[in-house]
User: Fold this.
Amino acid sequence: MQDILFYIFAYLALQFGFLVVANPFSRNPVTSAMFLVLTIASLAGLFVLLHAFFLAAVQVLVYAGAVMVLFLFVIMLLDLRAEERERLRTFEVVAGLISAGAILFIFLATLVHSPPGIQQSPTAEGGTIALGRLLFSHYLLPFEIVSVLLLVAMVGVVLLSKKNLK
Assistant:
C-alpha cells in the first residue's frame, strides 16, 4: 500500500508542478499559485510516507499557508493586465533559459560527484533534534542564503507595489 501511495503522491506532485509552469486551463497567475499549493500538499504526503511528520506539517503550515499567501498578495498587488501577461520579452525568455540550464547543470554535477551507495538514514524517524542540528551545522550557509533571498523578495514586493509617483 505504501508503494502505491508513493506513486500516487509522486505523480500528483509532478503533474501539479507541471501545471504551475505550463497551465493550459487559464493564463491567470492565481491559478498557477493554486496548483503550487496542490504540489506542496502532494510533497507533504511524500514526507508522511517517509515518516517525517514534522517536515510534512511544516510543509503545509509554512509553505502552503504563509508563503503562498505572500505570493498571492504579490500577484494581486501587481495587478497584471492581460496584454502585459501575454507579451513575452526576449530578455526574460533568454534569462529564464539560462537559469534553467544552470540549475540543470548544478543538478547533474551533483549527481556525478555524489558518492555511490546507500545513504545513511537518520537514527530517529522524523526526529526534530537531529534535523535541527543538521540544518544549523552542516546546512547553515544554504539556510541563511534562503533567508536573505526571502528578505530580498519581500523588499522587491514593497518596491513593485508602490505606485509610480511622477
